[in-house]
Amino acid sequence: MDLEVRHLKLVRAVAASGSLTRAGRELHLTQSALSHQLRDVETRLGTRLFLRVGKRMVLTTAGSRLLRSAGEVLAALEHTEAAIRRLAGADRGLLRISTGCYTEYHWLPAILRAYRDVCPNVDVQIAADATADPVRLLLEGRLDLAIVNHPLRDGRVVERLLFDDEMVVIVGPRHRLASRRYVQPEDFADQHLLLDAPKEESPVYQRVLVPAGVRPAAVQLVAQTSAIVELVKAGLGVAVLARWAVEPSVKAGALCALALTRGGDRRRWNAAVLKDMAEVAYVREFIDVFARHSPVAGRPGSGRTPARGAPGRGSNKDGDVSLELL
Fold first, then answer.
1. Is the pLDDT of residue 321 over 50?
2. What is the rounded CA–CA span in Å between residue 90 and residue 279?
C-alpha cells in the first residue's frame, strides 16, 4: 500500500487551509518538508492532487476523491484511538449519555451526584436531543451510553438492566374510573388520553391499545410529565405514567393511580452501550451507580439487579463531574 496516514493528514490539512505554509504550521512541518511529502505521494499515485491557482492550493479531481477517503479513514482511526484510551484510562474520561424522555430529569441529578463521588474525573454530558435513534448515534461515535425502555435488538450493542418500573393509569379523584382497581384497554375508548410521546412511538399505546383495537376519543401530546400531571388533576384527561413519577400526588390525594390491565404493566429500563464501551471501568461504574440510585431502587418488585463487574471506589476526589446539555 503506497498511502500512509501522514499523507492523508497532509491532504486534509492542505485542502482545509489552501496553503502549504498554513498546513505546515498545523502539522508542525516546514513548508519544504510538506512540499517534499506532497511530491512523494503524487509520485506514488502517479497524478497531481493539487494545482496552484494564484496563492491558493486547489484540489484536482483525484485530490477530491482522496480527500473523501482521508476523512473516512482518519475519523475511524481517531474513534478507535479514543476507544482504546478510554479502555486504558479507567478513572477519567468523557461519558455522553442520552435519556429516554424528559421524565428522567427528575431523578437524573441525584444519580449524577452519586456518580461524581466515585468517578470525579469523568465529564458527563447529556445529549438531550439524542433519543430518536440511539443505535445509530452509538455506532457513529456521537453517544457513549443510551438509557432506553425498549429492546434495541442489535448485536453490536450490549444492554444492561437498570431497573423495572410499574406503569399506572392516573385519573382525577372525581373521575368515573377512580374507584377501579385496574383499567382495561376498552376503558380508554371515550377518554382524552395525554401522551408524553407521539402515539406511533408510545410503548403503552402500541403495546396495549393498538392490539385491542381501541382508539381513544382524543389524544394530546404533552412532552412534560409535570404538565400531564396538572392536566389530569384538572380533569382534562387521563394518562399512563410510571408510579414513582406520580407517587407524591397520589399520596396527597390529588390523583388516583390504577393498574393498567388486570395483571399490571411493567417497563424495563436498560443502559445500551457498544461492546467495547461496556468494558470501560467508568462506564460500568455509571451503570452500577444508576441501578443503585434508580427511582425504584430497594423497593419490592423493582426488578433491579446489581450491575456486574463494577470497579472499586478508590478514585481521586480532586476532580468533578460536569453536567452539560448538548
1. no
2. 10
